[in-house]
Amino acid sequence: MSKHFARKYLREEVLPSTFCPGCFNGIVINAFLKAVEELNANLRKVVFVSGIGCSSWIPSPHIKADSIHTLHGRAIAVATGVKIVRPDLNVVVISGDGDLASIGGNHLIHAARRNMDLLVIMVNNLVYGMTRGQASPTTPIGLRTTTTPYGNFELPMDVCRILEQTNANYVARWCISNFFKLKDSIKEAFFMRGFRFIEVYAPCVTYVVRYEGKTAGEKIKELFSTCIPRELVDKAPQGKKVIEVGVFKKEDKPGYIEMYSDYRRSIA
Fold first, then answer.
1. What pLDDT, on the 0 to 100 scale, is given for residue 1?
2. Does a structural domain hold residue 260?
3. Is residue 187 in some structural domain?
4. C or N: which end of the chain has fewer Cβ atoms within 10 Å?
5. Domain of residue 90, residue span
């Protein structure tokens, strides 16, 4: 009997997964590892950094590679230090919207401004899932959470739109239903220079999907029709809820490491 391709990349001693039944983080792991497999990338040349939250458990402890599981909101700060000290390594940050867009928001924006050579994957589950479903910076209007029991009235952050205006080289968003697009996007960004950001829209099954009265499968089916490519958003029926997906920005400017090296040579 053949083994699943991902098993050689996973620490089987920590299985079964710590995620809730139906959690979409499993799809994110599968897409990432499929991209690694197709690229024939060497994970011994990769360092994962994550903060605090459900998706921060994707690299640590699941993936067989060096990883740093750091403080809440400090994943990008730590990853920046790793990249500066070891520019030969591919540094990948995997964390959630609460970790990256809230307490770590300034680190995120300034890493993008510097075009720091990092691949950042933000799994947007719309809430603080690990701490029982409080509203986060990306919580949609009207969503009932433990801290917004009558529905959220605050406008959510569109992190991709914000980072599109920075010096980042690559910005993209995909829904969890866009598995192959997500996998291909990770492949595209993996070896690029500069700052690369991929948002994965993956509503928390326990504190979002269940509260909507849906199953994980029903939510994925819904996302097939609500996750619309950027070029088709204007053609969507008026009033229809849509989630804009696609590549928001793709450039090939020198990253921070290259610019810093050039700067040091110029003043030597």
1. 56
2. no
3. yes
4. N
5. 20-215
Instruction: Report the candidate in 131, 114, 13, 27 with the shortest Cα–Cα distance to residue 72.
Output: 131
Q: How far apart are CA 236 and CA 219, in angstroms?
A: 19
CATH code for the domain of 48: 3.40.50.970
**Residue 40 is assigned to a structural domain of this protein:** yes
pLDDT tens-digit profile of 125-154? 999 988 888 999 999 999 999 999 999 999
**Among 58, 68, 171, 156, which residue's Cα sits nearest to residue 111?**
171
Domain assignment of residue 86, yes or no: yes
Sites in the chain below the pLDDT cut of 70: 1-2
d(CA 77, CA 98): 16
